[in-house]
Every structure is written in structure tokens, then in C-alpha cells.
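Forum: Protein Structure Q&A
Topic: Joint prediction for protein chains with partners

I've read a bunch of threads here and the consensus seems to be that you should model interacting components together rather than docking separate models afterwards. I'd like to see that in practice. Below is the full input, 815 residues plus whatever partners are listed. Could one of the regulars post the assembled result?
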Amino acid sequence: MHKLLSKDTGSQVLLLGNEAIARGAIEAGVRIASTYPGTPSSEISNNLFQVSQESDLYFQFSTNEKVALEVAAAAANSGVRSLAIMKHVGVNVAADALMTLAYVGVKGGLVIISADDPYMFSSQNEQDNRYYGKLSGLPILEPSSVAEAKEMIIEAFNISEALKEPVIFRTTTRINHSTGIVELKDITPPVLKGDFVKDPFNYVTVPAVSRKLHVKLLENIKKAESLSDNSPYNRISGSGSFGIVTNGVSFGYVSDALNDLDIKDKIKVFRVGFSHPMPREKILSFLKDLEKVLIVEEGEPYMEETIKAFAQEAGLTLSIRGKAENLFSRLYEFDPGTVRKVIADYFDIPYSPPETVDLSDIPEIPARPPNLCAGCSHRATFYEVKKAAEGTDTVCPTDIGCYTLGFLPPLSMGDFLICMGSSVGSGCGFSAVTDKKVISFIGDSTFFHAGIPGLINAVFNNHNLTLVILDNGTTAMTGHQPNPGVDMAALQFGGFGKVSIEQMVKACGVQHVEIIEPYKVKKSISAIKEALDFEGVSVVISREACALFAKGFKKKPSRAFHVSGKCKNHKDCINELACPAFFIDGEEVKIDPVQCTGCAVCAQVCPENAILPVKEA
Amino acid sequence: MKPIRLVIVAVGGQGNLLASSVLGEAALLAGVEVKMSEIHGMAQRGGVVESAIVFGDAKSTIISNGEADVLLGFEPSETLRALGKCNGNTVVITNLSPLPPFTVAIGRGVYPDIENVQGLIRSKVSRLVAFDAQALAKEAGNVLAVNMVLLGALIQAGIVPVSADHVRTAIKTRTKQEFLESNQKAFELGFAAAGQAL
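Posted by a regular:
Agreed with the consensus. Here's the joint model:
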């Protein structure tokens, strides 16, 4: 049995934040969950996918976050508890659905998980999704610990059903990827069968209907404000004439700082866990007797702006500060030491920071950047495209996935990236206004997610670009989740369809399609050349399984290669491919047989044919 | 209980996350409050994997610069890179077997001299326990058991509030059956080696 299905009520277990969130949803009786994977949310989905194999939970990897939310929205309006899981930038993709779903509302509870990523450990921006609460009008809950996350998501379903609105459950990386002790509670069996009752004058959002629904949404925001004022998740602790308002993981840093500084009797703390709508009355009564207040929140001054507005309306003139040059930054994530220092500074508390060691005489330590894996087929494709385009002035918009790492030297294939699918859309723009040859790169999962409209656009508007689809048969970067192009039957999963990228591309009207096997270097280069020479939209599908994923299925490892005595030290293998299986030993180039996957790409690149398979023992 | 803060640094693939999970389980068995956090998005792409483990009464799951009580390094240059987490009272335990990053392998960086690394660390912190954990892992029968060797050394150093027996139990429940024997042996070898190195 999956550990998240344990019926051992009352037992204390150690769970990753994302496991705790998944368990909380299971305890809440979630019937359906949908997602597009994205760090730091992915383990919620991976666990629920496994759980769905042995329980009544219906789970799906959707093509993108918008579809995931639409799936969950329909299920919730059929009366069952539904969960849509995504990273913060995924909410942007789902935003079109989100904004009007707030008008329509739900019947069964619907919780949308927005996993924000301050510091951008694995993201292209660090947007603060609490603003989606304001934008959509929907309630937001934010846990401060792993244990609380599990309890709070259950309450999120309850609030959703009480208000008949979706609830946004906002986490940050340090909740998702922290581990803590969690107490298991009873699992509520889900309502299995949904039923949709037709009610088009409340469900079909033509203008006349939406004008009515917007009134309802505003009423619901009022009700939510009252829930927020009375929520146990908005709570005050401590005493004193100074105040701190804080949320999320910052609450932990504040608590530890007050202990360390021994000022628990000087400072009252307001922990906000129900952050949209902000609890106006509770905040005002908190501010009333205080001399000065510090707002401790990562990201944007979301609470600070609101609290200042509350104070202004109530005629309060105390000092309320948060984001400022000498206080907190809007950049990156906080840490306990920074929070302690700012609290001490702002409230004039004597404090001596811990003495860090002197690092001035530490020699430069060589960087350890992430790299495409040894034997990664993307490396081969990038090399081949580079060779095929030699002498051509190019611009290469890239996309989101492992292959983004191809922008690093020596491959240096990747010139522009803003979001999922932008390789194709931006490629259209580059082709319209520059004389450069546009070569766009996109992965299989990203192509399904957001690449297809861009490709259709390129065909319709007659752009001159080559799209290289790096089809490694999985969503590799986020941990090898399936996508619509994956042969699920081959992975022993029944009940799935399959969409052919080749047929899809042709159906989009692309006139020139090449399919290459990137481990065959010469053949691939000449096929890519043909595609590049084609005037108009051409597509190269580079098809080879993710080396890391394939490792898990191979019964017998492939034969590794070695550098033989024929080597004349051109070092093309290192300077042009830079596969991490290579290393230099003295003057000699060598291959680590443990890392080498036997892809043989380097053997085809070597001008002396000096790289040969290791002889069988 | 006053918080004890442990930072573990490793290279992706060295089993840092498994070591953390064994320690967390051991703390649960010992009845010690424990919180951990990890950054592992790029772990499988050869990057650095860092975990923070906080035992005792603290709510934070991350550790600021200068605030680690113990730094456990799985790779010597990564131990050195993480030295900013230490203060004068920190105990540092490190594997001495290097895994040069690819930048060094292709001649775009110089790997620091191991003797120099040890001297530098020793001069800045209260205690350094340094030994070749990979050799002991090999001796235990599994070169990948470096993580268990280092766990043994960590427990021997006696700063984290879990006993060797709690860790021994956690190794049984948290590691794969096929590697259990070598993991157990690796733990004992690390435990003994750190005893001699102290």
C-alpha cells in the first residue's frame, strides 16, 4: 500500500511538504486531481498519480495548467472534491480559466495549489501569486509549516464548499521541499459519482450572465472577508507594544528570532494564514494599541500595502514598514539570520550576530553548474544543428526543460526564453523583423503544453523558421512524468491514448518534416540541413529516449567507449560536445566508463576515429 | 531542546537525501523534534545538493550563514564551498575523496589542493574530522555507501541528538533491502573511523 494511504490514524510520520499536502487532500476526500508538473509542486502529483493506481482517486497529467484547471472546475461543478496542482507560473497559463471560474464558482470543493518559488531555484521568475487572490477575488490560504500544510488543505476544501468558490492554496519552495513530522488522521472516503445539473443562466458566461455573476463574486468576497477575520489561521500571539505581521515560512523565522533575541514579551505577532481577503477587523484591532509594526513577508509588499490602507482608512498613524532599503528586500527568499537582524534593527533590540568564519583566504572553488547528462540525446541534437547551420547567421529561441541547459557553452544553443512555448511564438517575431535564420528548440512535453498554437501561427502567417522538437519521450526535467506523446502501454499503464507529434505537426500544415535519430550524427546533420534550407516552416523531430529515464528500463548496460591510442589530442570531443563522461588526466583525454552510456556520438565526432567501444572482458 | 543545526552538502547522486531521510527517521524514533529542507531540483544533473536539518525547538527549516553547528561534506571542494555556513564553534566532518566538477575535467577550473583544504578548514572551525569515506564504502562492499559511512562519522562526533542505535534502526527501515548489509557495514566503518580521527 502507498504510504500516503496509511490508515494508521494518530501515528507520527516524517513527510516531505509535498507528501503532506497530498496526504491532506486524501484525508479531505479528494476525488479528482489534475496537474501539469512543475517544480516545486511535482512531488504532490507524482504521489497522487501512484495513489490513484490503488484507490478511488482519479488523477491526470493534463496537457497544461489551463486544461488541468478546467478539468478540476468541471468535476467540482459536478459536486466532487477536486484539486488542481501547478507551480506559480503555471497559474499564469491557467489564469484565463481562473478569472471567470471565480464568477461561476463551484459546488464540490476545488483547491488550486500554487507552488511559488522565491529565489527561483527552478523557475524563470519569482512572481508572488498572492496577487492572484486580489485579481480573481478568490480566497488564499498559506501554511507556515509542513504539518500545518496537511491540516490547512483540508480546511481549504471546507472553505471552498462554504463559499462555493475555488480556494487558492499558496506554498513556497521551503514548504514543498521541507520535511517535518506530521500526524496522520482519518481518511474521508471521497464522493465518487458526480452529477452536473444544467443551469446555463448561471454557467454559460455570456455578458448578461457574467454581469450577474460578478455581483455574486463580490458578495462572496465579503463573506470570505468575514471568514478570514474569524479564521484560526489568522492568529495573534505574544504581547507588547511592538507588532509583527508575517506569513508562510517567515513566521518560523520570526518565531525563532523572538526566542533568540529573548523579546517574546515585547512583540506581538500576527500570523496571517488566510491572506486573501486580508482580515481587516482583526488587523485593525491588532494595530490599535501598537507603537510600530514590521511586516515580514517574502516577495512583494502584498500584506504591507493592504495593512497600510486599512490603517489609513481607520485614521491610524503608527509606523508600518516592511519592504525598504534598510529593511526587507523584495528579492529572493528570506533566512532566519536576516529576519533576526532586521527585527533587531527596526525595534532597536541589542543584538550581536553570530561570527561567521573568515572566507577571504579561501581559494577559488571550481563551479559545479548543472549539465546535460552523459549520453543526453539533446547534446547530440544541439551539436548537429550547430554543424548544419555553420556559416548561417542564426537566432535560436529555446524553451523550458532540461534542454534549456543547451544555452551553456560550448553548445551555446539558446538565445531567448521567457515562458513555456515561447520558442515558437518568439521565433515568429524574430523571423518577421530580422534577416537571421530562426531555429527554435522545444521539448515534447512543452510542445504539447504550449507549442502547438505557436506552430500553427508560424504556418498561417508564413514565417521562415525551423522548429526542432526534442522528443525524448518524457517530461524529464520535473522527474519523468508522462505526456500525450508517451507510449503509456509500453510503461505498463493501461487506459491511455497517444498523440503522434509527427501527425500533429503535419496537421498543423507544416510542409517539411524531418525525423532524425540524433545518435546518428552524419545522417542527422544532412537532414537538418534540408530542413534549414526549406523556405517557410520546417520541423525536425529529434527522437531518442531520455538517457536518464532509459537507464531505469535497461536490463543490460550498453558498452562504454574509451579513447584509444589513435587520439591526437584535437579535443573536439571536449571542446564541442562537453559530455560529462570525459575528463582530462594529465594531458590525456579519458572517458569515465561508469558515466558513459555508449551513445557513440563522440566516436562520430572524433576526427581520428580514436574513440572506440571498450572490449568485452 | 536547544536547536542543533546540521548542514549536509553533496554532489547530485551521492545519496545526501537518503542520508537526511535516515537521520530524520532516527530523530522521530528518538522523540526529537526535527525539520529538514533540501534543494534538489537539479540533483540529477550533476549540481550541488544541500540539505539543512534542524533538531530541537526551532521552526525554521533552513540555516543561515554562520549558524551551522555541524557541517557534513560528502565531497571536499563542496565542504570548502559551504564553509560560509560555519562559525568558530562548528564541527566539520568531510569525505576527502574528490569528485572534480566537469569544469575541472575540461580544464576550465583548478581543483583545490586537498591538504590545503584541510588546513584551511581546521584553522577556522572548532574541529575537523576528515577521512576517505569512499575507501570505507568500498570496504563495506558498496562504493555508493559513502552516505552511510559519513552518517556513522556524524553520529560518532556526538553533536546531533540521535543515538547510533536509532540510526541503525532507521537504516533498516529507510534503505533498500538489497543494500542493507553494505549500508550497515558502511555505517559501522564510518562510526569507527571518526572515533579514531577524533
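Chain A has four domains: 3-230, 234-346, 377-488+495-551, 561-613.
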